[in-house]
Structure prediction request, 163 residues.
Amino acid sequence: MSKHQITITVNGQAYTREVESRMLLVHFIRETLDLTGTHIGCDTTSCGACTILVDGVAVKSCTVFAVTADGKQIETIEGVANGATLHPLQDGFWEKHGLQCGYCTPGMIMSAKYLLSKNANPSEEEIRRGISGNLCRCTGYNKIVEAILYAADKINAKEEVKA
Ligand code: FES
Ligand code: FES
Prediction:
């Protein structure tokens, strides 16, 4: 099996590793970098548990090979909080009880982060569409939508204070 040296920046830190060409990005993140907050729920691009940001775009990391991320900037759930300060989305999931078992939560938060980067003030309908690639078998989704609305309000309130 051919090997390739790749350099990927994950949560601001550059990692250079040799990987097999068949290694999936999600396995690179979890097994090579030991960042296990990104989950695997299906391995078939269905559940969204493995969602991360690649150059700012939400990607299901079980869908791409690690070699294709060479030179790219990746953000995983481990990079979302600012030190001990939770991101408004994390606050929202806490405050609005947007999780039960939590298995889908890292992927939900990354998809929601992408959504809010494109649309700072999404409607409930737009949020449901934004997370439509992420499955949750516990919550029934309503609390997740409330959590994302909460985060959007919080982020927008902060922006207003800055302006
Ligand atoms: S593990 Fe990637 S979509 Fe389910
Ligand atoms: S909280 Fe359990 S799968 Fe979503």
